[in-house]
Each structure stands twice: as structure tokens, then as C-alpha cells.
Amino acid sequence: MRHGFVKVAAATPTVKVADTTFNTEQIIELIHKAAKEEVRVLVLPELCITGYTCGDLFLQNALLTSAKESLVKIIRATKNLNMVVVVGLPVMKLGNLYNVAAVIFEDKLLGIVPKVNVPNYSEFYEARYFGVGNQKVEYVDILDEKHVPFGSNLLFRCMDMQDFVLAAEICEDLWVPIPPSSRHALAGATMIANTSASNETTGKDMYRRDLVRVQSASTMSTYIYASAGEGESTSDVVFSGHNIIAENGTILKEAPRFTNDLTITEVDIQKIVSERRRMSTFCTSSDENYTFVDFTFTDHINQGPLETSLTRKFDKTPFVPSNKDSCNKRCEEILNIQALGLKKRLMHIGCKHAVLGISGGLDSTLALLVIAKAYDMMGLERSNIIAVTMPCFGTTDRTYNNAVSLTNKLGATLKEIPIKEAVLLHLRDIGHDVNVHDITYENAQARERTQILMNVANQVGGIVIGTGDMSELALGWATFNGDHMSMYGVNSSVPKTLVRYLVDYYAETLDDTDLKDILLDVLDTPVSPELLPPKDGEISQKTEDLVGPYELHDFFMYYVLRFGFTPSKIFRIARIAFSGEYDDSVIYKWLNTFYRRFFSQQFKRNCLPDGPKVGSVAVSPRGDLRMPSDASSVVWLKDLEQIKRDYGIAI
Predict the structure, then answer these.
(1) Which residues are L-glutamine-binding (predicted)?
(2) In the chain, N or C: fewer CB atoms in 10 Å?
């Protein structure tokens, strides 16, 4: 299963209480339906072969015998389907009856997992019939199946993707203080199947959803929860078929309640393993009390690893919540983090003056808004903020006017220091032809601006606030010892796509329509360093024409730094996220650019100024990215070359 994706499903069959023949037919029908969708793991509800609400009928030999016979039929139905099926039923062992999950694969019963926590309160009275399952694994004979492992401490390992380790628990097991799945995860399980029969009461769905979501997060696992639904007895309770599939704290798919449903999505085992590898406090252990049962998926047609077709969606802006309310909350939180970080620095050094270069672009606009917020927190006059505009060869009227208007509107002190003459003198001093618009021509302007900011800060006893964002730092799109340098960088862990949302959010909260209009015009201005002369008064140097779209680079950066995905996996999910917007060759081109720049520009990140971390991804050499400046990119570029061959990209 390439790139670690596994297609999984939680399904609720319609049952008739105690009618094992009907129930088995419904289960097998769901199995074949899931197989057509190329599902590799199918989880069915608790005791669904008999029905959960059989009551004292569980004490009847006829029902138990019929349940075992039905299990055999289900086992036989899995032949050549390449699917693990987890199904619930009652099973006798040494004179005791157990509520179990049977794990089946390719016409074979791999193992039986008993319920460990048997509820006997309120509407639940399972202890009347069922014994408490042991953790220790024993071996039983059940009908034609001999020497079948039976116990809670069973792990089912996929040999063609050994990070894929399945464990099972049953309903109430999830609701106790330390669920069995917590132990299973520490023993190596990356996927948890829960066969459940959780009845509905008002508000219980939210609690259940949170349990599944949080347990998947605390165990850093994928969690498949399949619950009983329509067909169960409604004498005292009602079941809703509330199926949930979660991945490390995120609900991937959820069934509508009160509708028996087949809920399908893909889970990412590589992502789970990546998270565990990154979190040093998640300590898996080789527990001798666990028994591993191995199985292997087989591609009967191509005789190679299975390819999982993807239906799950990938957000184009992983740094920005898609829900507007969540996005607004995130933006407010980030602005507070940025402002509080700066507030602490200013208070610690007893500094009342902050100096920044204001260009009329997105980054310096956000930085000025953050500084103003920090000053408000400290009760300082905003006039102590010194915003310096330094027009030169590439400055346009639009950005200049926005810089001036924004500074005045926010009540900061504006200083205008044109740098054209100073840069021309410097270029003459070093013998550089002013008509050659190369990197020297561009960087001379950036370094002159930084020199001015540093010296103005010295004049007033202040500090220079950096404006560069994390996307620029990841790509190295900053002039070394120019705009790359400051005393404190408030945007240093904010990606470019999020900068845009932060400024937009700030604009939407304003009652001042003039200030709002300025911010909206800044948002509408092309991203540019404005280091080359304009054409007909318009910006001629557009950053995204040179290094690529920031929405692509931020997407790449998120999956490179957060999860360590390979280039081929990032390319695959980028094709889904940006379908209809960028073709394969464009995505490949800028992915190639990202890796080449990311590896070659680490020397700039290794000497970054301080700045507050605001999210789960950052590039500070003191925190999140300890990377040598001379690391080789050969392994990653080799994978990029494979993309060209796999997708027939000609560049």
C-alpha cells in the first residue's frame, strides 16, 4: 500500500434480533460491497451476528451454535477479497461465554479478541451473560478452525507494510480510564478497531465523538469505530449506527446517525508513524505479553504492492482552518501570540521604541499591526513605533501610498528615507554597472535598508522588528544580512498563506472603513520585493513568478516539516488538493524548486533572530529545525526523478 494509505470502513448491517441467518446475509452483503470499493479493513458492530440486544437468549445453545456456524460462513465469504474483517459475536471458551471480536482474513480466522471491560450498570447488564476477557493470549479450537489465538493482547501485523499493526477493543473498553487500546498502541498498534453497540441518549453522540477523537490522538493511531444501528431491539434503548473513523485527533469520516451506513475513507499509517517518531514521549515497548499474528495483502493482478485509490480530501491551505469560525479564532490567537512575544521582549530590555521597514506589502503590514497590538497591551503610545519607508528603484506609488497611509492611520511615527542615492553611490564604489539588474543590484537595496533600520534603532534606543515570514525563510527568499536580519522577527513562524488571512481577519474586525480599505488594497497587491524598476508605474517583479505560488510552497512545507513525507507522496496529495488549478508539470516544477531551495538555504535559517512560534511547524534553529547547512538533497531529488517517470512528466 504505497505511501502508507489504507482504505478502511466502518459498517452497520441491518439486523434482526437473534436471526443469525438474516444477519449473516446482511454482513456478507456489506463485505462484498466494501470489497468492490477496495476496502482493506472492514469493522462491523459488537455482537452483530446475533444482534446486541438478545438478552437472556444469549444463554440458549441454539443461538450460540448458530452464531458459530454463521462465523464460518463469513470466514468463507472473505476468500480472495484481500480484506481484514472484524466482526462481533458471542463465543464459548472453557464453559464461559465471551463477547468477542473475530478478526478474519482470506478465508482464515486470524484471532479472537474478547471484551475486557464488561458493563453492568444502568441499561447495560452484560455481566449477566459474558465473562471478562483475559489479556493473556490462549489458543482455542472453534469448529474447523484449530489453534486460534484468543485474548485481548493480540496484534495483527501486515507483513507487506509492517508499520500497519491492527488491534481491537470492544465498545465499553473505550469508555474506561485506561482503554486497552492505550496498551495496544504502546505495544505497536497503529490502527484500532472498535466493534461497538453504543445506544443513543441526548448529547451522547458528542461525547462519543470526542472519546474516539481524543483516543486516536492520545494513542497516535487511526481509530475505526463501528456501532450497532437499526434492527436492534428498541424495548428500552435505541441505536443509531454512529460510525466514526479518526486519525490522530482528526475525524476523517462520520456516518449520519440513525441511518445504517457503510463509512469509507483512507487512513495514513505513514503519518501516524511519523508523528510517533517525532514525539519522543511516545515510547513503544516490546511487550512479551503480546502475540503478533501476521497476514499479507496480495495484488492478484500485478503481483506487487497494492495501490490504494484515494477519496479523502486534502486542504489546499493546511495552515489555515477551512471553517470560517475556526479560522477567525486561529487568527485572533496567533495575533495574540505574536504580540505577547514582542511585549515580553520589549519589557525585558526596557525598550520603548520599535523600528520596522514599512513597504506597503503584506509582511510589513502584519508586523506593524502586531507591534501596535503589543504597544496597546503595554499601555505605550503608538507614536513610539517608528515605521521607516525607504523608496528606491522599484517602489510604486501604490505600495508607497499604502505604507504612508497605514502608518498614519495606526498612529505610528513615519520616517521617509529615500535610498536611491545611497545605493547608486555604493554601486559606483564597488564598480557595479547600475544598468545590470542582477542579484548585486537587488541585494544592495535590501542591505542598505537594513543598515538604515539598525542605525535608526540605535538613535532612539530601540530594536528592529523583522517582517519576513516563514515561507520566505523555508525558500531562502531573503537577502542574507539584509531583510533576513533583525532583533526580533514577529512573523518568523507565520507562513505566507496565513499572513494573508491574518491581515484579512484584522481588516474585517475594523469599524474604521478607511483603514479597512487600506488593508484590503494591501491584500490585493501582488507580492513583490520591489527591487526592479516598475513598468508603466506597475510592479514588474512578482515573487510568485520567480519562486512559485506560495500556496503550493506552503502546502509542500507543511508536509515536509510536519510529517517528513517523501516528495512522491507530497506530489500525489498535491494533485488531489490542487486538482483543476495546477497540472502535474507545474506542481512538479515548484516541488523541485522547493526542495532545491530548502536544502541550499539552510545557512540563512541557522542564524535567524528570535521570534515567537505560533503553530506546529517552525524553522527556528533553536527549536524545530536543527539541520546542517551542507546536508545533501540527493535522496529527495532521486524520489523527484521517480515522479517524472511515474507520471510521464517532461521538463
Answers:
(1) 121, 198, 204
(2) C
